[in-house]
Amino acid sequence: MKKLLIGLLFLGGCASQGVDRTDQNVMIKRFYATVTSVKAVKLSSNVKTGIAAGSAIGFVDELDGNHEEMIAGALAGALVGGLFTAIAEGSNDAFEYSLRSEQEGNFTLIQKEQVDINTGCVEVTIASQTHIKAANSSQCYLK
User: Fold this and answer.
1) CA 141 to CA 34: how far, in whole Å?
2) CA-CA-CA-CA torsion sign (34, 37, 41, 46)
3) pLDDT of residue 74
4) CA within 20 to 30 Å of 66's CA: 6, 21, 27, 115, which one?
5) Distance between CA atoms of 26 and 101, rounded to whole angstroms?
């Protein structure tokens, strides 16, 4: 089990930062929107699920041992499962942006990245995922 976890860590470091694979054959739409409000929010977490799954895997991995080994396997699995889930999720802090667009009307977007909204204008990109980034305020003038 230890070799598998070490192998997964090394493979994770080799991931490419190219175009998201899920954006293949997906129409990408870009438009501008004005920011009407922003508030900080907390995202839900799957750490408890990671702890439970890791505990179960650790327990099953030690089924051929005695009771102490099964308990130790469950505890180690819980620690590893919870830790890897917490690392994968990152921070639970995010931002809820209320936006208005002439084409799209009013809508809300939640994302982890904080956007500089000094101009009050953002570029919205919709593909397999939606992102916003700061834009020049002249882009958002309503006609």
Assistant:
1) 9
2) negative
3) 85
4) 6
5) 22
DSSP alpha helices (H): ranges in the chain?
A: 2-12, 47-61, 67-89
The predicted pLDDT at position 4 comes to 47
Q: How far apart are CA 85 and CA 78, in angstroms?
A: 11
Model confidence, pTM: 0.62
pLDDT at position 16 is 59
The one-letter code for the residue type at 110 is: I
Report the sign of the C-alpha dihedral through residues 131, 133, 136, 137, in that order.
Answer: positive
What residues of the chain score a pLDDT lower than 50? 3-9, 143
Q: How many CB atoms lie within 10 A of CB 53?
A: 17
In one-letter notation, the amino acid at residue 80 is V
* CB distance 120 to 37 below 8 Å: no
